[in-house]
Amino acid sequence: MDAFYASVEQRDDPSLRGKPVAVGSAAARGVVAAASYEARTFGVRSALPSVTALRRCPDLIFVRPRFDVYKAVSQQIHAIFADYTDLIQPLSLDEAYLDVTEDRRGLGTAWATAKEIRARILAETGLTASAGVSYNKFLAKLASDHRKPNGQFAVTPDMGAAWVETLPVSRFHGVGPVTAAKMQRLGIETGADLRAKSLDFLQQHFGSSAEWYHQIVRGIDERPVNPNRERKSSGSETTFSRDLTEDAEIEAAVLGQADDVWEWCERTQGFGRTATVKIKYADFQIITRSRSHTAPITSREQLHAASIALLRSVLPTPKGIRLVGVTVSNFERGLAEPLPLFGHADMA
């Protein structure tokens, strides 16, 4: 979906259309959950502290999130998907992989299937979606961003490897900012640069990830679309446009990531007993703080409390922070007895 949360708000409130909109809170401790395309032209992005977003775009309009509405729309969209295939692997409320090899509706091509799905989403929800069409998940994911918003792009088998070579490695799904920076230090800027490196070289510098990089740069990804994939953890992290040093800003960012994680937990009814906070400093040092409990985390407030308790074990910060993340793991399906508020953090 295109700018999903913000687009839902603009759909439901015509006065917001064509204006820079952020879903979130404008409070000093607020964080942007989603930004409209009008806001993105000013550099406003999800997980950005609200005070920073307002500095970049003084006319930014903040709208409180309505997760119940977003979930209802997501269910509409998944009902459309189900008319075309049973092989649906959700990534979030607004994104999923679909394997349409069976061609249930006799449309002839995956391109035609994606086009019809997008048209139905627009007709039934009033929202636009973009699609990537390809012969594997890695390429479809890359292609889905190529013609946003409201577009689709296909990567065919005869163009897959050559197309990947033209892209910057920072765009590759699974290559985060730290890995991209490391690749650049090794002279790897594009897919072509990555392909030129031997498997031995990649293993020397990237260890267990080397085989993955060696495969995807050749357009190879054998992972199936798995509708029954069991998640071992749910996490969210963000890299800031500038290093954060103020406790309030850092705590606001952690709460924003916790909200992203809780959205998934609530939607899937997957409740974990272990909360982890990740911090990456300006010098790229990474630390994590984690704590496991006897009962699952079963509310947003509990996850907030757990995340802040873990974070405060390393505050005040001795140096700038460039990234924070929150993860819940050790899942138990379904509700459990509420967990009490958290005490001291353990080191992980």
Characterise this structure.
By secondary structure, the protein is an alpha+beta fold. It has four domains: 4-63, MutS, DNA mismatch repair protein, domain I (3-Layer(aba) Sandwich); 68-129, Reverse transcriptase/Diguanylate cyclase domain (Alpha-Beta Plaits, 2-Layer Sandwich), CATH 3.30.70; 167-216, 5' to 3' exonuclease, C-terminal subdomain (DNA polymerase, domain 1, Orthogonal Bundle); 233-347, Dna Ligase, domain 1. The protein has 13 helices and twelve strands. The protein has helices at 4-12, 37-40, 50-56, 67-81, 110-125, 137-144, 160-165, 177-185, 191-195, 199-206, 210-216, 247-268, 300-312, and strands spanning 21-24, 32-35, 61-63, 88-92, 95-98, 131-134, 152-155, 233-244, 270-281, 286-292, 321-333, 346-347. The protein has a five-stranded antiparallel β-sheet with strand order 8-11-9-10-12. The protein has a three-stranded mixed β-sheet with strand order 2-1-3. The radius of gyration is 21 Å and the shape is globular. Mean pLDDT is 89; it is low at 334-348.
